[in-house]
Amino acid sequence: METSLAGAEFAPAQTYLNTATCGLLPRRAVTAVKELAEWNAQGRPGGVGSLEVVAAARARYARIAGVGPDRVAVGGSVAVHAGLIAGSLPAGAEVLLAEGDFSSLLTPFAARGHLTTRYAPLEELAGAVRPGTALVAVSAVQSADGRVADLAAVREAAAGHGARLLVDTTQAVGWLPLDAGGYDYTVAGGYKYLCSPRGTSFLTVTEEAQESLPPLHAGWIAAEDLNGAPYGAVRSFAAAARRYDEPPAFLAYHGAERSLAVIEEVGVEAIHAHDTALAARFRAGVAALGHEPVPGDSAVVAVPGLGGREGELLEAGVVTAARAGNLRVAFHLYNSVADVDRALDVLSSGPAGR
Is this prediction's pTM over 0.90? Predict the structure, then answer.
């Protein structure tokens, strides 16, 4: 696998291995955002943004996530989606969380004084579910080090104790094949492996879970009839998960609709094979240099103890991240073998690589 999967859609100015922080926008998404911004500046009727484009983005995400569009709500951040779920839980409800998971998933539950939060190591999460656990919330892929959760085991444990399961797929969807319909809730920020602008986030809710999830932050956008005058309290909410929509950031969603088209056209299965092959090459390369990466087959690779090399890599034109003491690199469809080898060359030439 010598080249990227993206063709001319992406134009990184340097070796970009930091999708776990922020994905790159494809050219067609940049064009869509610029076009809407120009229309808005000119006062053209279409400059306010299109709900039809938002609906198209919803449908594209639904296909990528393996669910129907009626199960998808759109919004601006994972934290708001998680907060919606946290706000629906009764006082005293126990929420089981993975230690060290991403703050935007954990904090909405921890900040609500009426909930009981409990933590367990990721590898022990399934075994930590117990009678009385109301919800388990976990990221499919850990941001700090790329570890992939055993979601099948967690789902089985949650179901066995009558607990709902919320999966944050932000670091997974777009490269890791997932069936969002297998979980009560999933949340995903669009600006990483979906290569969408910041301000896009997707929530999926099963039909059964929708029965007990109230639209706590509903506005006019949640109404069944969007053609009616947006005055007075909404009396009839959308029958589908659209009733959980936040008012969309139109610039972001006009770009996201184009970005999600790229992911669909290439295909998640092909992206998965491409990304994990590059990650495996990098793991083998750093191991040959005497470093021990976090094991696994994730597209996100963490090397403990090398976080201090981030600045050196950046000076050499290789963009990575330092997280929790780890050097974190993340591969996606616009990366190639040459990108892997460039990063390894820099690591091998520095004092720590000799």
Answer: yes
